[in-house]
């Protein structure tokens, strides 16, 4: 659990530092009067860190924020308007990822004592735990057809990649390495 918290802490620090670094290199030489603004898009590029993510179905962005004192899952319109909190508890909720049809969001949370994978409807209703074990389960991501979820887990002693059906059934380890394997991302 300490390794997972350290990883999450490092990931958050890197995200904050990266977000405050200023304009991209191609805009760095512009005049001091010029301002840099990001233009939101609805294109999703798979990455090791699926937060924030967008969906073409509703033009929403899912993300986590600690604006209420701990990390919760929020959604907002692609232009940044109408931020809405979907989770509300004393635990940490991280790494939201949209289902292909935009109807559900999978995420990780430590609300039950350790990090597990949860799924909820896009409006935050019906939050359901999909994994339930003593290990740290995280970094969930949907398959392109929405039938499976890949995630990482240290349930077998070190972090490995697993897949499961979208309802949490048939959890299967698909890597078995001497090294750590984590942060899966499906191809489109």
Break the fold down into its secondary structure elements and pairings.
Elements: H1 2-19, E1 53-55, E2 60-65, E3 72-77, E4 84-85, E5 93-98, E6 104-109, E7 116-121, E8 128-129, E9 137-142, E10 148-153, E11 160-165, E12 172-173
Antiparallel strand pairs: 1-2, 2-3, 3-4, 5-6, 6-7, 7-8, 9-10, 10-11, 11-12
Explained architecture:
The chain has a four-stranded antiparallel sheet, with no helix packed on it. The protein is 10% helix and 30% strand. The N terminus is likely disordered. The protein contains one helix and twelve strands, in the order αββββββββββββ. With 188 residues, the protein is mostly beta strands. The protein has a single domain, classed as Neuraminidase (6 Propeller), CATH 2.120.10.30.
Task: Describe the structure in brief.
With 188 residues, the chain is mainly beta.
Task: Give the averaged pLDDT, no decimals.
Answer: 79
Taking pLDDT < 50 over at least 5 consecutive residues as the criterion, the unreliable ranges are 1-50
Task: Count the beta strands.
Answer: 12
Secondary-structure element string: HEEEEEEEEEEEE
CATH class membership: Mainly Beta
* Derived structural class: mainly beta
CATH superfamily: TolB, C-terminal domain
């Amino acid at each position: 659990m300490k390794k997972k918290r350290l990883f999450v802490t490092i990931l958050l620090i890197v995200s904050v530092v990266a977000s405050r670094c200023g304009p991209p290199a191609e805009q760095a030489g512009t005049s001091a009067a010029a301002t840099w603004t990001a233009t939101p898009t609805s294109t999703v590029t798979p990455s090791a860190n699926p937060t924030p993510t967008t969906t073409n179905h509703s033009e929403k962005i899912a993300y986590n924020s600690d604006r209420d004192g701990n990390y919760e899952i929020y959604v907002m319109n692609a232009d940044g308007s109408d931020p809405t909190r979907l989770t509300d508890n004393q635990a940490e909720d991280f790494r939201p990822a949209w289902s292909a049809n935009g109807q559900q969001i999978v995420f990780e949370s430590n609300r039950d004592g350790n990090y597990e994978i949860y799924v909820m409807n896009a409006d935050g209703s019906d939050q359901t735990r999909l994994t339930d074990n003593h290990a740290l389960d995280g970094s969930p991501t949907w398959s392109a057809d929405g039938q499976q979820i890949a995630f990482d887990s240290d349930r077998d002693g070190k972090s490995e990649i697993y897949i499961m059906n979208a309802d949490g059934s048939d959890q299967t380890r698909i890597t078995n390495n001497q090294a750590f394997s984590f942060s899966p991302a499906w191809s489109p």
